[in-house]
Amino acid sequence: MSFLAAVWHSGILGHQPIQGALGLAWTVLRHGPTLYALAAWNAHRTPDAVALVDENGPLTYRALLRRADGKAAGLSRHIKPGEAVGLLCGNSADFVAALLASLQIGARTVLLNTSLSVAEIGRIGQQQRLGLLVCDGDWPQRLRGHLGSETVLIHVTQVCTAQRMALAPRLPRVGQLVLLTSGSTGMPRAIRSRVGLRAGWRVAGALLEILPLRAGAPTLLPLPLFHGHGLAALGMGLALGAPLHLCRPTTEALWRTLQTEGIKVLVVVPTLLHRLLAAPGRRAAPALHAVICGSAPLSAGLATATLERFGEVLFNVYGSTETGLISLATPADLRAAPGSVGRVLPGVEFELQGGEGRVIVGGHDTGDLASLDPDGRLTLHGRADELLICGGENVLPSSLEGRIAAHEAVAECAVVGVPCAEFGTGLHAFVVLRHGHQRTPEQLQTELSPLLPRTFRPQRITLLETLPRSPTGKLLRSQLLREAMMDMSATDLKPPL
């Protein structure tokens, strides 16, 4: 199916597809190929349709565009096209309006992670030469004195004006969007997408063809909009003219919204999916057509449990901030190969390089290790920079973690490598126990010993309530490594049992 055919089939163009297509083309010519253009297109054809729902209630496309235009006029007082604006906000209609506004005035928009420290934000502000930082909550008070004199600090609710922007005829000033890497392996880095327009169209067409996405389908998004996964869901919602529910990522809030708002599309990370399934009582969400999971590895066990609970609605996506989407696993893929990330999407320039299987996309080394099965399904095996050599043996933490997690008492675990006199690198496992199970680290070591080769057995086990994760559910392995290094030294480590 071609891109145009997929768009037609999805219902995006409405009951009069030709008029809808012409209207979209005119809007893009006027405003550029941005999220603002999608919002403006919907505001013109369905002004009273709900665009967003946050904790303050629903907001129509007409109201969203009016708010975005007001903020654009406010931003223009401080920023010229091409200058940098930082957005440091949680999910809200005000954040979306500020994002649309920044893109509309042609600013270079830097999306900042709200879990960053004040010092990290200060460093990024200097690196990106932010002329304006828009934030919410108590960030204005916390950041005072930590930003350069060239950066104006303003609360997101104060970026407005009673006057809408003058829409005089002009060439569109397309703003640039800058995202940060997750920082799971160190200081977050600002990156720009490597996805070309033609390849992007092919990927978008494939998604519309494979995913059961239809115009107007209520969508639930508990993921942060400053991350690529959440941002893609926002773009998807605006393109489909779908009401996007910006829900807090708590189990109760998710289940309440799923059951009361007729949610058809749920966008999650594995951590949230696990919490949904673990909630007391066997709750149902009969309206669900698609559960789109990504941003972190989806275990085979969780994939199977989700399919059993919700039916054939689970899709697992794999990609990165730098490369965009790479592959997609359908429910059929996950039934056949629960641990896979499916097949590489059309338009993605993909190759596996070297004997270890490094994932290369568009010439960019993602740092991931993977393999392809005979049916073309891709399975990830961890990060190349996480590969450990223990006693001359290659150990992938993700593979070992899966074997440890198979123990009846283990809910999840993470493994890091530390210096070891005997093996060069020793293994330190951080384990979260299942509810109702009790074990000491020594008991776990004893029970795991018969199940693992000698060089694969962790020399030390630390029990945790939860594993440290980013807001998108990505394991913060570097944080665990720091803890492990503080907890032991090479001379502390004992040979495995």
From TrEMBL:
Which PROSITE patterns does this UniProt record tie to the protein?
Answer: AMP_BINDING
Q: Name one GO biological process term.
A: fatty acid metabolic process
The membrane spanning regions, by residue number, are: none
The answer to whether UniProt assigns keyword Ligase to this entry is yes
Q: Which InterPro entries match?
A: AMP-bd_C, AMP-bd_C_sf, AMP-binding_CS, AMP-dep_synth/lig_dom, ANL_N_sf
Which family, according to UniProt?
Belongs to the ATP-dependent AMP-binding enzyme family.
Record-linked PANTHER family? ACYL-COA SYNTHETASE (PTHR43201), MEDIUM-CHAIN ACYL-COA LIGASE ACSF2, MITOCHONDRIAL (PTHR43201:SF5)
Record's protein name:
Acyl-CoA synthetase (AMP-forming)/AMP-acid ligase II
